[in-house]
Every structure is written in C-alpha cells, then in structure tokens.
C-alpha cells in the first residue's frame, strides 16, 4: 500500500516492487490537480524508497533533484516535519548514489555527492529538534562508511540506533542494528544481528539488507 502521508512508513516491505511501482504510477495518474500537493510528496517519498530498495542510487538522486524545484515552489517545505523528512530523503538519495560511485572508483563524483548529503545534514541540525539531529547523525554515519572510515561510522551508528528506538521508529532501528551487525564483530555484532532480526521478522520484512539500504545507504 502506498502511503498518502509523509510519515516515512511507505516502503516496499513485502518485496513486491512491481506492485509498489504500480501504486505510485496509478496514484500520480489519478490525482486530478495541477501543482505539487501532499499527495505528490507522498508519491515522491515512495518512489525514492523503491529506488533505494532496488539499490539504484543514481535513479533516486536524479529523480529527487528533478522534483525538488516543484516541491520548493509548492511551499510544502514551510512545514518543519515535511521539510526535515524530505531533506533526509534527498540526503539518503545522494548517499546511495555516492555509494555506487565509490564502488566504481569515481572519487570526485563520490565526494560531490557526499558534500550534497552532508549539506542536508547541516540544514537538519538547524531545525534544533532531536529527531532532526538523529537524521543528521545518520547521514554523517553513512558518509563515514562510504569513505571507508569504519570506526567513525560505528561510533555514530551506536547512538543513532538507540535514538531511533527511543523515537519509536522500528524499521529504522532495525536497519541501524543491521548496519552495526555488518560493521562490528564478536558479541556486539551478534547482539545487533539478533535485535535487527527480531524487528524485521515482526514487520514481515523479506529482505533485511535491502530494507537497510533504504534507511542507511552505504552503511552495510
């Protein structure tokens, strides 16, 4: 089901990408009003999650850049929650594209994409609210991971996992734990894997690594 809100809960959790894409396409096709409304923002949110789940960071980044001018013009970003969530979405798209560029050895492009993501992290901190700081910390953790600085990435992933748990964001908590599972060793890795698996199973997530790629691109 494609969410009609910007809650961040709309994801292709069942693994049915074709079905999720079909719902987005139908929602856009059937929306009768010109301009960029909350429904368009929900469709954008879901479309980017489909790309991230598919590990198509370049498509995610291209799509959100194309849609961003219309989003800004619509004044939807005057709302703090919408502004924060959409900046985080743009940053995650840039991070996913950066991870793909890094894998190809394109250092200059990778750094340009990371700079874009980190700029959104700075903008999130200006909101001066706890949840926005958590989103910013997530972005910075992923950037460290993409740059190959595992120690710095893990040092941020630990508190971010706790913060998402305190915020009640279960899938994002599980994704943070899954990232820690992949980036740590020994008892910490085992505990993180068990914590992530419990939530993923409760939420009926079929492919935990792909779900993690939505919320923590480049951190696996």
Could you explain the architecture of this structure?
The chain is an all-alpha fold and 220 residues long. The protein has one domain: Serine Threonine Protein Phosphatase 5, Tetratricopeptide repeat. Helices cover 75% and strands 0% of the residues. Helix 5 runs antiparallel to helix 6, helix 6 (130-147) packs antiparallel against helix 7 and helix 7 runs antiparallel to helix 8 (170-183). It is globular and about 55 Å long. It starts with 16 loop residues before the first helix and ends in a 5-residue tail after the last helix. The relative contact order is 0.11.
Question: What topology does this entry show?
Answer:
Layout (H helix, E strand, L loop, with lengths): L16 H14 L7 H16 L3 H17 L6 H24 L3 H19 L4 H18 L2 H18 L2 H14 L2 H17 L5 H8 L5
Quick rundown:
By secondary structure, the chain is mostly helical.
